[in-house]
């Protein structure tokens, strides 16, 4: 399955998007939903399988310009530490 995920991630390179793959999926950021949908379609089509599942969750905050990494930073500021615990 990792190979198929890699194909989907590689397909994103053809678009003006920033992305970060994590254990639960890939966060994609772009300026327009048109670019997002085109990139998601390309990633979906890049997977060679009998069944492909693509899930989109869109957070389109129009009153403020903040990216995903900044959201994590704000949480960490509230915690006063990194938002991870790899020792558990």
From TrEMBL:
Domain Thiamine-binding protein span(s) in chain numbering: 4-76
A Pfam match: Thiamine_BP
Any single GO CC term annotated in Swiss-Prot or TrEMBL for this entry: cytosol
Family membership noted in the UniProt record: Belongs to the UPF0045 family.
Protein name in the entry: Thiamine-binding protein domain-containing protein
């Amino acid at each position: 399955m990792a190979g198929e995920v890699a194909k989907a991630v590689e397909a994103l390179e053809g678009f003006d998007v920033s992305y970060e793959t994590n254990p639960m999926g890939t966060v994609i950021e772009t300026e327009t939903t048109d670019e997002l949908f085109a990139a998601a379609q390309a990633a979906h089509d890049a997977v060679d399988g009998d069944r492909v599942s693509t899930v989109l969750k869109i957070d389109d905050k129009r009153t403020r310009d903040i990216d995903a990494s900044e959201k994590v930073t704000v949480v960490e500021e509230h915690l006063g530490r990194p938002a991870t615990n790899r020792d558990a």
